[in-house]
Task: structure prediction
Amino acid sequence: MSEVIIGIDLGTTQSAVAVVDSGFPILLADKQGNTLTSSAVWYSDTGEVKVGQEALRRSGLEKVHTSVKSVMGRRADESGGRLEADGRIKTTAGLKLPEEISAEILAELKRVAEHRLEATVSKAVVTVPAYFHDRQRAATKKAGELAGLEVVRILSEPTAAALSYGLDRLNDSSRVAVFDLGGGTFDVSVLEMREGVFEVSATSGDTDLGGDNFDEAVACFAAARLERDLEGLDSMERVQWIAEGRRVKHVLSEADEATFRIPFSGEVAVSREIFLGLMKPFLDRMESCCRRAMLDAGLSGEELAAVVMVGGSSRIPLVKERVARIFGQEPDLSQHPDEAIARGAAIQAGILAGTVREVLLLDVTPLSLGIETMGGLMNVLISRNTTIPCKAGEMFTNAVEGQKLMKVSVLQGERELAKDNWELGSFEVQFEPNRRGQARVGVEFRIDADGILSVLVRDVATGEDTVIEIGSSAVDVQEAKIEQMVSESVEFAIEDMNARVFEEARLKAEELLPAVGIALEKAGGFLSEEEITVIQDARNRVEKAIGEGLVAELKASVDQLDEVTESLAAVLVQKATDALFSGPQD
Amino acid sequence: MTDPFVLLGIPRKLGLEASEIDRLVRKASQQHHPDAGGDEELFKKIRLAGEVLKSPAKRIRAAIECEGLEFDKRGEIPEEVMENFSPVATVLQNVDGFVSERSKAVSELGKAVLDTKVPGLKSDLERVIGNLNELESRMIADFASFDERGWAKCGTEMSGIARGLAFMTKWTAQLKDANGKLFEALLGG
Result:
């Protein structure tokens, strides 16, 4: 018998573990008979750990860690204050990384599986939101390792749900959308199933949108009515208010009205209509993701054979109604909302273990991968929705004679300007000293089947590959400014014809060019000859770039002109201020 | 780069049916995916080859390179393609302007008044995308003639078309993105 690989759904609010038995995925229950484990962890000051319901039982009395998934792989500045500066969480047992806390949940699920299977388990497939980026995936993999599990695959949640849905429909040839709204994250994926191959065509989502947001919205509303401020409550009270918000949300799935009730604080009636008002912004964001995925897949709702809904929040009638409206068809509710993802993970585990042979999954990378190029633009090397594993090569050359080092920033995201994307980190490429444009280094970007990136530098002379570390993205502005990067794109020099960036830069140039003339006339006398030459050179560069229609060059030159005229602008402002505060000129 | 035609076992022709390419790529993916015991590097190469052949812009570029012909990526762009640059830039600018104004609007009425622009923007987008698609179809229709005349004799002409198609692909993607941004602006994505 081949080695058992378990499938784990590591959710924001609850988790589950499953395994394929005789070709069919089944969930494994703990000793109490529960197939779902709350994603909650409690630490005592003596190092004791409790996970799941046992941990939750202490909430309201002591600090219990929940929704840790939402800060996995994040930096302190994007954690909403939940992470300390070094990216750790304060616990009774000391500072811990989110992956260390998640590892406790995974270890618990490992114990559940070992108990049920009566065998040692050392390998797992773990699911993550499809929209998780590289860092978040890597952190999840790390959590598995810490729990003593080799994570043989990081699998996207909606894709897992699609496997669960499609296992009984292997002879169908159809396109389906999977809508996955969980406790903390939202994903939507469009897949094509044909001859046992499940191919993801598009995926979109929001890693900060889920049931937790709705609970909080209800609690917030009630707090406002009771003239309290949710943010002003202490953490124990806050937990209580949000739990009550959740209860009200659940009641409203059945009834038209519910009462929000906190002992000694008061009561608030919440009607379904009020609830709709609270939900609207979230429903709108959801719709926006769905439309984006359909646009990417080049499909309309009518072309889909089914819209499969999973995730605990797909039980909410308002969500179902909105989904029906977006896709123009009634959603398919045949999958168990809390169990489908774990089942799908088990199927993928079966594929990897060789026990499931009739299915193959082709997943995609959810976000475009690129590098920062001249003029602060993002040059996409691997576009979103590319099937993984995949790779892309890029050739770099020296911008100036004798240049030895070049800094390359690696980005993930869909925006055209580099600064608007997520910076995964940066690395340095070394050159042999050579004439301008003569030194060459090939860099290969690889995304593996887990959606995790690695970068290889190839020495063109020896053909030898070196794996390089992508440093943490501590931003060193000075350095970023000095190091200029030139890449000889394998693709076209498309950035030169980027209509949007050209237009934006042209507008700025149109404002700057005449302003430079006027300003020099009025305040040129305050500048040194050298400064004036610098400004005039920059102006000529902009005019030349407009004439030749070069986008990257125009953007870079306009930014330069903006920068070198800073002191000129300061002089003008000073003159205006002086005039304002001084008496009448004599 | 490995010859994508050879890698997928497709006759070296530019005039190819998209559905046939899809079928071959799927078959090869199934066979060579690492999860099915295939070679990962070969799988990646096959997917890249599939992407190249599915995109008319990349396919013609690959044909030029396979033939060992000179390709200048900064060469001239066909006039009929350049005619679209200004309309593309204008409509993108208009959409960006709308999105930025919409995000700043604070009153429901203010938003509603701005939203009256959406149908116009949407039809502008669709018109420009339509023009690009139509032009692309016309250019693809010429592909078969290169097959007949032999690639070696049409290098310059093919290079121009390759450049033009690449720009059009980029513009179409930007326009579709702009379409998505309209949705996001209305829905607060």
The interface with chain A takes residues 26, 29-30, 33-36, 40, 43-44, 47-48, 51, 73-74, 85, 88-90, 92-93, 96, 163, 166-167, 170-171, 174, 176-177, 179-180, 183-184, 187-189 of chain B (CB under 8 Å). The domain at 4-54 of chain B is CATH 1.10.287 (Helix Hairpins). Chain B has two domains: 4-54, 79-187. Residues 125 and 176 of chain B are 8 Å apart (CA to CA).
